[in-house]
Amino acid sequence: MTTTEPAVGQLLREWRERRRLSQLELSSQAAISTRHLSFVETGRSRPTPEMLMKITEHLDVPLRERNQILLAGGYAPRYPQHGLDEPELANVRAALRAVLTGHEPHPAVLINRWWELLEANDAITFLMTDVDPALLEPPVNVLRLSLHPDGLAPRIANLGQWRAHLLGQVRRRAVQTGDAKLAALHEELVAYPGGTGPALAPTDVVLPLRLRHEGGELSFFSIAATVETAADVTVDELVIESFFPADAGTAERLRELVGG
C-alpha cells in the first residue's frame, strides 16, 4: 500500500480551521486576498514560499510543521533541526543547564513537545523514590512517570486534581498541533486510574502538586519557560518546567534534602 501526503492547500486549511479562523479573518491578518487564499487551499493556485511563511506565521504553526508545509508546497525546509548534543546548540544547552542548576534546591526538568525528559537537575532525584525502574528507561516521559500506577501516582495526594490538569494540557496541545503522537499519549494517560479531584477553592491561586514523601508532604507549583526566539526545530520544542515550593515547610525540607 502507498500513502499520499496531504497537499499544501489541505494542510493550510487544516491549520486555519484548527485556529478557528475564517478565510476572511486569515486573509485580513496576513494581508492577502481572500480569493487568493481560497485558490491556494483548493489547489487552484500554487503559493510562493514567502506566502507560506507569512501564512504559517499568522497561524502560529510550530517550526516542525512549517517545514512540513514548505515540503508539501515543493520547497526546501527553512528551519534547521539539530540534536541537543550538536555543536550548533552548545550555547543554548549551556544556558539551559545553567537554569536547571541555578534552580536548585528546587526540582526542574527540560522536556520536549511530547513531555520526554531531556535533562533534569539533581533535586529531581529526591522525588523518584519507589518508582518502577522501567519507567526511568529512556526516553522517560514525565507524564507517564507521573500518572502511571507504578510511577509517582500512588504518592500524589491530590492525584485526581493533578491528573485532570495534566490530561487537559496534553489534550489542548494535541488539538493545537494536530500531533498524532500527542493524541496517542493522551489516550494512554486517560486509561490510567486516578479519577478526578475536587475543584480549587476560591482562595487558591495555583494548583499544587502535593507529593507524599518520607517525613511529610511536599507541595509544589510549576512555571514553564520556552525559548521565545527559537529558529531551530529542536529549540522551538524545548520547555523548562521549574517547580517551586508552595509552602514554607516544603522549602525547608528541600534545603535539607538537597543540602544534605
TrEMBL record:
Q: Which residues form a coiled coil?
A: none
Q: Which InterPro entries match?
A: Cro/C1-type_HTH, Lambda_DNA-bd_dom_sf, MLTR_LBD
GO molecular function, one example? DNA binding
Q: Entry's SUPFAM superfamilies?
A: lambda repressor-like DNA-binding domains (SSF47413)
Q: What CDD domains does this protein's entry cite?
A: HTH_XRE
Give a Pfam family name. MLTR_LBD
Out of the domains of life, which is the source? Bacteria
The HTH cro/C1-type domain extends over 12-66
This protein is called Helix-turn-helix transcriptional regulator
Source organism: Cryptosporangium phraense
Q: Lineage of the source organism? A: Bacteria, Bacillati, Actinomycetota, Actinomycetes, Cryptosporangiales
